[in-house]
Write a structure and sequence with these properties.
Blueprint (H helix, E strand, L loop, with lengths): L1 E2 L11 H15 L4 E4 L2 H8 L7 E5 L3 E5 L17 E5 L3 H8 L7 E5 L5 H11 L3 E5 L12 H22 L8 H14 L10 E4 L20 E6 L2 E2 L2 E2 L2 E6 L5 H20 L6 H14 L11 E3 L6 E5 L12 E5 L2 E4 L3 E4 L2 E5 L4 E3 L8 E2 L1
Parallel strand pairs: 2-6, 4-5, 6-7, 12-20
Antiparallel strand pairs: 1-5, 2-3, 3-4, 8-9, 9-12, 10-11, 13-14, 13-15, 15-18, 16-17, 18-19
């Protein structure tokens, strides 16, 4: 069914109008008259909808938001009051589309080819004939990298929560605790301070397991003189933060202090070098060259960083593996160089930064020296 909009949010971030303008240009450039957005985070960037089921059909002058009856009440206080917005409630979006013909002037419907599996796309195409279903890669994402001031404020709040919890964990962690104990405590404390949930699975590893770049918390007990690596964040109004902190329990060796300084200095240099318009591969090289020159290039094998927003890992991807990732203005990045020694220890430092035309703002600040508790 279709119904008129009651009390939708009229004051929404100005950047949303810009995103729609860019999206419509992209649709036209791909020789389509409309496109359907299915990735939920992209739909939220455009409409503010936070539920788990929605489709967004965008034409040159209309926006058709489709969800099911579970969210009929929620959308009344959540959706942006977009120009020419029409809301449709159904549990069979493609059957409803064929029956209601709200895209009756459309011949070519673009879709997010990188988010709809091929088999699903074939089935949808067969259901909506004679409408042509055309794949478009990166249909929306690059227009969501820049953040509105309102969105940035949520990320800042998420950063504050994460940093506060890290400070608390320094006084909580002690030998005998398990990695799982620590991860559970982080999740509890972030929520207690206002986080909606974990933006990604918490990493809490210790001793030799810190050499696992994405190690899952285990039953391993913290031992005296262990290196501890925590990688976690918080989430406010859907927007997340992402920090990594490395410290020692008991006593740190000269080697560990040296490696920490190297990783910290590489992170600092990369943050200071970041500029809008810069190729992500060149930024990755700033930190990677420092680590390589110190003789540990082979021990730093993951990318330098990534964007942050409604998803914990967004574009642009700051990596040596790609040369097509350009850093835009008003983007939030997580910068996270690391050095890892299998069966020994690993260290990573990660901070979140905000890039504008004139400056780079640190949203989080890792300690300059290796902390020992």
């Amino acid at each position: 069914m279709t119904y008129s909009q009651p009390n939708f949010i009229t004051q929404y971030p100005k950047i949303v109008d810009k995103r729609f303008h860019q999206l419509r240009f992209n649709i036209e450039e791909n020789k389509c008259e409309a496109a359907v957005i299915t990735k939920l985070s992209n739909i939220r960037y455009l409409t503010n909808f936070s539920g788990s089921s929605a489709f967004l059909f965008v034409t040159d002058d209309e926006v058709h938001f489709v969800t099911d009856d579970r969210y009929e009440e929620q959308i009344k206080t959540e959706l942006y009051d977009l120009p020419n917005l029409q809301v449709h409630i159904t549990r069979d979006v493609w059957g409803y589309l064929a029956k209601s013909k709200f895209l009756n002037k459309v011949e070519n419907l673009g879709f997010e080819a990188d988010h709809i599996p091929y088999g699903d796309a074939v089935e949808i195409r067969n259901r909506i004939r004679p409408l042509k279903f055309k794949p478009i890669n990166n249909l929306v994402e690059r227009f969501t990298y820049p953040k509105a001031p309102e969105e940035l404020e949520y990320i800042k709040q998420a950063c504050k929560i994460a940093e506060k919890v890290y400070e608390e964990m320094l006084g909580f962690i002690q030998p005998g605790m398990s990695e799982k104990d620590i991860a559970i405590e982080i999740a509890y404390r972030t929520r207690k301070l206002g986080s909606e949930g974990d933006p990604f699975d918490i990493i809490a590893v210790s001793g030799p397991r810190t050499a696992l770049v994405h190690g899952k918390p285990s039953d391993r007990k913290i031992k005296k003189n262990d290196v501890i690596l925590l990688d976690f964040g918080a989430k406010v109004q859907g927007f997340g933060s992402d920090i990594t902190r490395t410290f020692c329990v008991g006593k740190a060796t000269k080697e560990q202090k040296s490696i920490y300084k190297l990783v910290y200095d590489a992170k600092k240099a990369a943050c200071e070098a970041t500029r809008p318009g810069m190729n992500g591969k060149l930024l990755d090289a700033v930190a990677r060259k420092m680590i390589d020159n110190a003789g540990y290039g082979i021990n730093f094998q993951h990318s330098l960083g990534h964007g942050i927003g409604l998803e914990a890992h967004e574009g642009p991807i700051i990596t040596f593996r790609r040369d097509d990732q350009i850093i835009p203005e008003d983007v939030v990045l997580a910068i996270e160089p690391g050095v890892y020694f299998p069966d020994k220890f690993g260290m990573r430092v990660e901070d979140d930064i905000y890039i504008t035309r004139n400056e780079v703002t640190m949203l989080t600040n890792a300690p300059e020296e290796l902390i020992v508790i």
